[in-house]
Amino acid sequence: MGDRDSKEKIDLLLTSSSKISSENGHSNNKLTPQLIFATVVTVLGSSFQFGYNTGVINNAQFVLKAFINESYHSIHESYPTPAQINVNYSIMVSIFAIGGMIGSFTAGYFADRYGRKRTMLANNILVVVAVGFVVMAHFLEVYYLLTVARLFFGFNCGFNTGLAPMYLTEIAPIHLRGAFGTLNQMGIVSAILISQILGLQQVFGNEKYWILLLCAPLAFAAIQTLCLPLCPETPAYLVSKRETVEAYVALRWLRGCDNVEGDMADIQAQNERHQDLVTIKHLFVRPALRRALVVAIVMQLSQQLSGINAVFYYSADMFYAAGVSEAQSNLVTMGVGLVNVVMCAISVPLMEKVGRRSLHLIGLGGMTVCAVILTITLELSTRYMWAAHVTVLAVMLFVVFFQSGPGSIPWFITAEIFNQAARPAAVSVAGLVNWTGNFIVGIGYLPLKDLIGGYTFAVFSVLLVFFWLFTYFRVPETKGRAIDEIAASFQSSDSTDL
Whole-angstrom Cα distance, residue 155 to residue 149? Predict the structure, then answer.
């Protein structure tokens, strides 16, 4: 009886769609209020979490180090050395990435089993847990509880980095996929800027109010928890679970019209070609999938090992070491965040005009030049004022080039080069690699800086050259191409894996 009712509903939908199709000739692939609403809710609740928790640790580092110092004395009845404070602070910064690794690696499994929407909603529970540890750390004056809080924030953000691009890619019309992928990055960089503003000493970056600074992610979780239930699950996921009627309803809601037959036909055709779910093992043993996976992995590494997180995590410390005062270094860091947002906004229309591959090459090339300049000026900045000024300018330009392509492209290109059967597994592996790179930079930058000084950016320069060459020779352009067409480009003449 249920199957018969479903068939009648589908027939009714098809009849309605056919009528409108004959009148209008095409589906509404424009931005609709509903599509904008779903996008904003996803960006605010998921992308914002990642960006805010990445940036909040930067301007707040001075007050947090002071808290570590006093808490350590309270627990051990002796004050820690500067090296011990740096080690504890580095662990607090980098354990966020450990949580991110675990969250991102399992995001694909939960997204496929429970759906993109339900997993995003459940993920907000982790924010509540993290904020609870922040509150306990503050009132009990126990610094290592902040480290536990950062771990749970990492779990949450790991899920978000996999779920948000997946959800946005699957609800977006094909000609807007690149722009939607950039909107995810726009949310991240906007939240980084907000965290840097709130982290100023005059706002919440002080001994009295830092608890509010670290508890702010609760607001983003609340917004998504209240608003996401009003949005549908992605049509691609619903079709994969044979919930065809619900998929039609979701598409009609997102497109703001009844004529969704063309979109539905594309989704169903892709689902029929790839009904068997691809596991992580398949990604490594099937040649075509393995070739696509290598591209996804190197693209993720090109983002994280470029040196950008050294800027996001430690730019205040970097400027301070270059001879800029503590107050001025926080203001300059906020300026970096503003540049971040402006450039990301500029890259949104460029994504569909210039193309992903070209923008990634431009970004990596510019970052390489800036990294070489920083290698020289960071060593000279303590002796020459002009070098300190050039350091600030080079960091600004480094961020400009990062946001022109490498900031957003690696996240959503993984969703573009894999079909919907392989996407959850691919997102899990790519996310794990991304967060591993994040962890390496987070835990390794300060010790490496203590060892070789400003020459740390010489390491990033070499890596950036390698990533540029790989992108030039191995990464395909995905602009305006159907996902199945992109996936097929990774097949060799003797391979039918996809």
Answer: 10
Burial 158-190 (b: 16+ CB within 10 A, else e): bbbbbbbbbbbbbbbbeebbbbbbbbbbbbbbb
Question: Per residue in 281-296, is it b (16+ CB within 10 Å) or e — as a string?
Answer: ebbeebebbbbbbebb
Please give the Cα distance from 481 to 498 (Å, whole number). Answer: 16
Between 57-61, 86-90, 106-110, 255-259, the lowest mean confidence (pLDDT) is in: 57-61
**Identity of the residue numbered 69:** N
Give me the count of residues in the chain.
498
pTM metric for this prediction: 0.78
pLDDT tens-digit series, residues 450-477: 788 778 889 999 999 999 999 999 998 8
pLDDT in tens, 101-159: 999 889 888 998 999 999 999 999 999 999 999 999 999 999 999 999 999 999 999 99
The residue written with tokens 């605010």 in the block is 44
At position 358, the amino acid (one-letter code) is S
Q: How far is CA 354 from the centre of its chain?
A: 22
The residues, any chain, with a CB within 8 Å of residue 172's CB and separated by 6 or more, are: 35, 179, 180
Sign for the pseudo-dihedral over CA of 151, 155, 160, 161:
positive
Token representation of residue 76 = 């051990």
> Is a pLDDT exceeding 50 seen at residue 3?
no
pLDDT tens by residue, 318-368: 676 666 666 677 677 778 778 878 888 887 777 778 888 999 999 999 999
How much of the chain is helix, strand and coil, in % rounded to 5?
80, 0, 20
Separation CA 35–CA 182 (nearest Å): 15
Over 50: is that where the pLDDT of 6 sits? no
* Distance of alpha carbon 254 from alpha carbon 250, whole angstroms: 6
Contact between residue 467 and residue 459 where contact means Cβ atoms under 8 Å apart:
no
Going by C-beta distance under 8 Å and a sequence separation of 6 or more, which residues neighbour residue 139? none
How many Å apart are CA 379 and CA 432, to the nearest integer?
A: 34
Structure tokens at 255: 């497109």
Short-list 157, 171, 264, CA closest to 220: 157
With 60 as the cut, is the pLDDT of residue 26 above it? no
Contact 271, 236 (CB under 8 A): yes
State whether the Cα torsion 35-53-415-114 is positive or negative. negative
Burial of 126 (0-12, 13-18, 19+ CB in 10 A): buried
